[in-house]
Amino acid sequence: MMIRTGLVLGMIGAAAVSWAQAGPRMTADEVMAKVRVGLGVTAPAGTVDTFKAGDPATPVTGIATTFTPTMAVLRKAVADGANLIITHEPSFYNHQDSSALFVKDPVYLEKIAYIKEHHLVLFRLHDTWHLRVPDGIAEGWVKKAGWEKYKKPGEQMFFTLPPTTLAGLAQDLQAKFGARIFRVVGDPAMRVTNVAYRPGASGEEKQVRALERDDVEVLVAGEASEWETVEYVRDAMLQGRHKGLILLGHETSEEIGMERFAEWLRGVVPGVTVTFIPAGEPYWLPGMPVGVR
């Protein structure tokens, strides 16, 4: 009897010590404070890196990182026991996550209702993850592409690759990233060695400035307005210039960078479960339909 009682008391004591060591759960606000310190960069004026939904004082049961919090991502987070979702892109369909257009919209209202029902907290991490050195999104993408050893000296977004063709480069990237859809402008047979990378919607100025460089033959980018960089590259090609453009899609050009963020975050908040949930490519081709996610 004394042995059994001692065993029970020992188990209770061990549990108490474990609970004391674990301490209370961090709140979402406390997690993001640690992230800000860890990144060591100052957010720009008017930053979009803010809470977008939920109560920042909510104790965190788990963290999910993602490119954008689709309904599928939110459902997976709930199934995984994660209530803090850190997203790179907007939650509500515009850069500032403004609800002005959607106050009576059924899609918006259902999403908000789901977030409230499951006590989720959404934070957008965009500006400061890009401002980090190295850029967190680029770091993840370059590693996935296998281009780390091909960086030009002192450059993060410019590379000297083994010789290939424009078509070969596009096919290689499509295979590595498992993307359904790429769009390519330029001569498929054009020989390529020098490449620039501009993730996401980097804008015409950054894209054209990269293409103007003598040591850039192809720009690999996320997206572009079709009357801007796309037509610039088409005219360059028609003038006989050695230029090409590969548009990966915004998601394909950046999502892997939020998997890199999950890896980084585990070192910042040890003891908290951090998972990466891919949002996935939204497009499919006629004749090649895919399942709904």
Descriptive overview:
By secondary structure, this protein is of the alpha/beta class. The chain has 2 domains: 24-132 and 255-276, Udp-n-acetylmuramoylalanyl-d-glutamate--2,6- Diaminopimelate Ligase, Chain: A, domain 1, CATH 3.40.1390.30; 139-248, NIF3 (NGG1p interacting factor 3)-like (Udp-n-acetylmuramoylalanyl-d-glutamate--2,6- Diaminopimelate Ligase, Chain: A, domain 1, 3-Layer(aba) Sandwich), CATH 3.40.1390.30. Helices cover 41% and strands 15% of the residues. It is built from 10 helices and 10 strands. The strands form 2 sheets. It has a 5-stranded mixed sheet with strand order 1-4-3-2-10, with helices on both faces. The protein has a 5-stranded mixed sheet with strand order 5-7-8-9-6. Strand 8, helix 9 and strand 9 form a beta-alpha-beta unit. Helix 6 packs across helix 10. It is globular, with a radius of gyration of 23 Å.
Show the helix and strand layout.
Layout: H1 2-22, H2 28-39, E1 51-53, E2 63-66, H3 71-80, E3 84-87, H4 106-117, E4 121-124, H5 127-131, H6 136-145, E5 158-165, H7 166-177, E6 183-185, E7 191-198, H8 204-212, E8 218-221, H9 229-238, E9 244-247, H10 250-268, E10 274-276
Parallel strand pairs: 2-3, 2-10, 3-4, 7-8, 8-9
Antiparallel strand pairs: 1-4, 5-7, 6-9
Helix pairs in contact: 6-10
Task: Write a short abstract of this structure.
The protein is α/β, with parallel strands linked by helices and 293 residues long. Helices cover 41% and strands 15% of the residues.
Helix content: 40-55%
Cα radius of gyration in angstroms = 23 Å
Which fold name corresponds to the CATH topology of the largest domain? Udp-n-acetylmuramoylalanyl-d-glutamate--2,6- Diaminopimelate Ligase, Chain: A, domain 1
**What is the terminal-to-terminal distance?**
57 Å
Q: Summarize model confidence as the mean pLDDT.
A: 93
- What coarse outline follows from CA principal-axis ratios? globular
**Class of secondary structure makeup:** alpha/beta
Using DSSP, what is the number of strands?
A: 10
CATH superfamily annotation of the largest domain: NIF3 (NGG1p interacting factor 3)-like
Instruction: Report the β-strand fraction as a percent range.
Output: 15-25%
Give the uncertain stretches in residue-range form: 1-21
CATH architecture of the largest domain: 3-Layer(aba) Sandwich
CATH class of the largest domain: Alpha Beta
Strand arrangement within the widest β-sheet reads 1-4-3-2-10
Helix segment count? 10
Topology order in helix (H) and strand (E) letters = HHEEHEHEHHEHEEHEHEHE
